Amino acid sequence: ASSRGRLFPGPSLSPLAVPNMPAMKRAMKASDEAKRARKADQVAEHCAVVVAAIGGIPDEVVPEKARNMLASLAERSLQTPAALRHTYQAQVADMVAQAFQDFDRHLSAVLGGDRAKVDNVYGDREARREALAK
Description:
The chain is mainly α. 73% of the residues lie in helices and 0% in strands. The chain has helices at 21-55, 64-79, 87-133. Helix 1 runs antiparallel to helix 2 and helix 2 crosses helix 3. The N and C termini lie far apart (118 Å). 7% of the residues are buried.
């Protein structure tokens, strides 16, 4: 096999030695689709956790009917990337955030009252001891 008449010296490539490009593209596309599917499953799992958490917010923070409505709308709205959300989906996401902020304030207020009781336990104990000593 002489290299005369060819542009590149060396062994010539047979058609079998060249990879089948369409088949490789299909394989790459399939792996990309699998990655997208895994990502979508992860997002759906996270959204399910958020929806379950919405259900756990007490009635005094968000009324039951509003909570149910918010939970039903939240999953679909939160699965859509923020940049691609419709105006209504963005509003639902904002309402979800507001509900959790309200719940956080509610918990802080409840725990703040309990913390004051705990802090006063030692003072109350001393007052009782003094009262018994008299």
